[in-house]
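Sample entry (494 residues):
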Amino acid sequence: MAPNPLFRGLDSQETAEPLVVFIFGVTGDLTRSKLMPALYSLYLDGRLSRIRIVGFARRDWSDDHFREQAALMIESMPGSDEQRRRFLSTLAYLRSTFEDDSGYRRIPEYAEGFSNRLYYLSTPPSAYEQVIDGLGTHDLAADQDGYTRIVVEKPFGTDLQSARRLNELLLSYFVERQVYRIDHYLGKETVQNLMMLRFGNGIFEPVWNRHHVDHVQITVAESSGVGTRGNYYEAAGAMRDMVQNHAFQLLAITAMEPPNDIRPESIRGEKLKVIQALDRVTLREPDEHVMRAQYTPGVVDGEPARGYREEDDVDPESRAETYAALRLFLDTWRWQGVPFVLRTGKRLSRKITEISIHFKDPPLRHFAGSGHAIDRNVLAIRIQPDEGITLRMNAKIPGYESAARPVNMDFSYGTSFGRAVPEAYERLLFDVMKGDPTLYARRDEIEASWAFVTPILDYWRDARGALYEYEAGSAGPSEARRLLGSGSRRWRKL
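Predicted structure, serialized as tokens:
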């Protein structure tokens, strides 16, 4: 059996089979900022043996105009003029609304000469059902001579009921092996390396349990506000936008049991078990274990920042949370009694995504009276920015006394391997082209996470639970401290 691409990265000489990629909603920002640069990077790297990229949208664009726009999307990237020209020549534009049958009827024409098709839904979530139904009713979902696959962006539903409805619609036309529910956090190199860190080294796994770990923190912090996404955020909030997908994916990989092997279904099965093992005490006592907050005016990077209720397209009396934090427990042998505390928020003091494992104190604190700070050992896995890993431990200060202080051992991808870390979308697009679903969420995992989060959303919807405030540019609401419990625990500094 060939090695799983999860641990092979993009260093091998694999290439994707010839295929045509249809990007629905191609005129949107996702194509501009992520998809087109990722496809071009794969092209430069020799990963695409033969490809056609078809944009599907309602704007009155021609093939030439689409190529001109794509040229702007990749203008800051490397490559010769000839490489750019050849890549741009693979682009074509299919003008149609998502409701128009004629657009779907033209898809076989644009796919002529290719046996493999990839549909990418880069549309607003409100259009997912229209596109899926359009593909299905025009017999465009089934495998032809090659494969047919569909990628669905997040958010995948807004609650358990809507996620189930979307899954049922997808699986009425496609089969599960054709469906790729994307979460770009899983394409981050450090997220993939977390499994290598645990299962590829003999020193970590023996202490990765309740006997040695005091608690785990997962932070997904952003310094930006909602920007032009006020309408979206009013309906979504931090819990839907970040917790149900990104934060829960990080939780699942951190806490999962060692799989029997590294096949996609083995890994995805272990991740599902983590979500299914979430202790319902969090839902029975939401005010004790969950909190939300909203940012008020403050200062970010030395500049005044508006409060959330002053942002464009936001209700002046909005109760949408821009910050959410949870204390979770897993009802498993490995993690019984260990708190997993998650936090995410907009307009915080800096942008960082991090998983930190906080180990228990040694049984005897010989150096506690040395006059210097002795702290817990912490293994911090930085997802973004500056992907890497830091181990904090206590070391003796040089001199004649037995004084100690915390020091860091640091590993950075940028300096350790002498090469750029692939962008998440580059990796994820290549995986779907190769038919590897390891880094994509399965139906049961999506629904299990919504099953846990939806009762919290319902509780807040009924105007129960306090809505706290925090200044833009701060580390979040002071009330979040209580989720760590009593004692010496404290949030990692942002």
